[in-house]
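QA checklist item 7 of 12: single-chain prediction sanity check.
[x] sequence parsed
[x] length recorded as 279
[x] structure emitted
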Amino acid sequence: AILSVVAVTLKKKERERAEEAQRQSEARFRALAETSTALIFIYQGEHFTYVNTASKFVTGYSEEELLKIKFWELVHPDFREMVHQRGLARQRNEKVPTRYDFKIITKEGLERWLDFAASAIQYEGIPAGLGIAFDVTDRKQIEEQLQSSELRYRMLFEANPHPMWLYDVETLQFLEVNDAAVNFYGYSREEFLSMSIKDIRPEEEHKGLFKHLDKSKDLGGLLKSGIWRHRKKNGRMVEVDITSHTLEFNGHRAKMIMATEIAQPKPKPKPKPKSARKK
């Protein structure tokens, strides 16, 4: 009987220690979650069981409101089904992506982008999902602006009927050329990218070219460089009017060049001999 009482007492103390350890772990988790700038939440089935302060701040909903709605109802319609199915599959320990981006709709009707990571956990003995998300709306907007800017650049550069190229200010190597430059000079794009800008200039003008480049190296904005002689792949010399603009391109300080061919005056026809005119 005494041994039985001792065993019960030990089991009770062990259970109390486990419960205290669990309470301390829960307190540490909440202290960390409530001070985090990331959205941290736990969901079981289709509903939230815990949301931190950042979750309330970003979504615009109160804790009471969030605990009443299904976790996927916050998600933008474009991503809702994906997030819904992955969230349920995760709780079934099925293999699904652990990190991805999606949009949510806030209480005010605004769209926000989240960089979301999730894992399957046991919460109070029941399978659950732990989600951690960062609001990356500003980053996404910058990416969209860059993509739009890139598209405008491509339209301006690649579709321009005038020969255009980009070259490294330090090495003078070609960095990019448009189709008009390929067609006008006769070099392939691959050939251009293995060359420098001095390779399309007559050798006797290299000294003047280097002097001009040194003088204009630190000048920004749009610059009219004047008329220069260029050599095509077939050796033919042409005169072009050069306009340049300094910019950053793929980590290089570069200049964007546009070349406009100077039309050569047509030679006047030779006058016919008097004998030919009489006939």
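[x] summary fact logged: The chain has two domains: 36-140, 158-261.
[ ] second reviewer sign-off
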